Amino acid sequence: KATATAASMHALGCLFSRSPRRQEDAVQLLRKAVNVREKRLSLQSLHLAASRHEFGCALLRRGKPGDTEMGLTQLLKAAAAREARLGKKTLPYAASLHQIGQAHARLGDYREARQYL
């Protein structure tokens, strides 16, 4: 039941993250989805990786102080799980790498960003 609730929070958070007026709601829902999935699923779960990826992206979009660093942490974890489970030549892994590059660029670390973009 908790994992079904996490799936709903994930889906609604993804939807809200695309709406400029719902960024705060998106971050809160995706944070909750990550927390539930961390407790209930394997750390290498693709569902957890998807929630971490979306949570990291939502933090980058929101753009409050500290969001980029926290988003980068989530994206790195998502990329590691996606690489371990799916391999390097997959779209989900590539999407995480792209967002990692975006986070590094926002932090002003352009040399590191170039490795991912």
Tell me, briefly, the overall form.
Answer: globular
- Taking the alpha carbons of the first and last residues, their distance comes to 38 Å
Radius of gyration: 14 Å
Number of strands: 0
Helices and strands, in order, run as: HHHHHH
Report on this structure.
With 117 residues, this protein is an all-alpha fold. 80% of the residues lie in helices and 0% in strands. It contains six helices and no strands. The protein has helices spanning 2-17, 23-40, 46-62, 67-86, 91-106, 110-116. The termini are far apart.
Question: Which secondary structure elements does this structure contain, and how are they paired or packed?
Answer:
Layout: H1 2-17, H2 23-40, H3 46-62, H4 67-86, H5 91-106, H6 110-116
Helix pairs in contact: 1-2, 1-3, 2-3, 3-4, 3-5, 4-5, 5-6
Keywords:
6 helices; 0% strand; mainly alpha; 117 residues
